[in-house]
Amino acid sequence: MSLWDRIDEGSKPPLEALWEAIPGGLNVIPDIVARREAMSAARAGAPKGEFPLLRVIEHTYAGPGGDLTLRLYSPDTHDDQGPGLIYIHGGGMIMGDLDSQDENLREAATELNIPIASIDYRKAPEDPYPAAPEDCYAGVCWVFEHASELGMDTGNIGLMGASAGGGLALATALMLRDRLGPSLKYLLPIYPMIDDRHETASSHEVVDIGIWDRAGSIEAWGWYLGDSKPDAYAAPARAEDLSGLPPTYIDVGDLDLFRDEDIDIAQRLSAAGVPVEFHLWTGAFHASELFAPDAPLSQRIWATRYTAIRRLAGLPV
Known about the structure:
Rossmann fold, two-stranded parallel sheet
């Protein structure tokens, strides 16, 4: 059975539409600027919800390479100084911005009734490693320093990210541990991008789905690393010591290039004494819940994540 035949039927239509619009998927666009524009255009057509009880405010602060922007999603009904969540967007270290998952974060903040701070970071190839994790570290520290005005309790702040954002969430958690920075309550690296080596079975299998296939991943890692030697903060799969990280939730699709590296990091985290919840979603390709949000599988994925966040943050489940 081919990988395409194994894709969840409810999640296929948006992927088929992508192939029709861009045969081969986004990674066949060689120019990175054009690729970013194509991603933005694809996102522009997505339906928008209404969130009347949600305030969305942007803050600018000094980062290690210049000013950075944070977008705060704050429900009118949340308790002041309660749980909070910091989010890092994806994009393979080369794409993405605060608008990439704006709709999803509006839904998440409303569903969970907690403030969510979405932080941005510099992208490769213009700004290769270590720009991105250093920006994320600075963003997390800024949130903790300003937690009271953001409506967050510093004793109950989690960190979440998807894809490249998931890898950056793990890298940032390692940096916080090693630099004796603020303490996270929990960590949610969602199908994290963490291994530059591309040696796993899944990294060889996923070559023609159209969403983060092997060739595009190798290209992105090359741009991201530049002339740097990969270490644990660049590629957290290389970390020798995973102890001391906060309780962690990870999920990944069984048709995702990152499947095996994510299974491995979950096992290693657990062996290092970190409480871990892990889900492998049958029929899900990379970011399928974002491309096909109305699919029943996608709705199960989001519901399971929300339950995990509520449990980890001490909210009613």
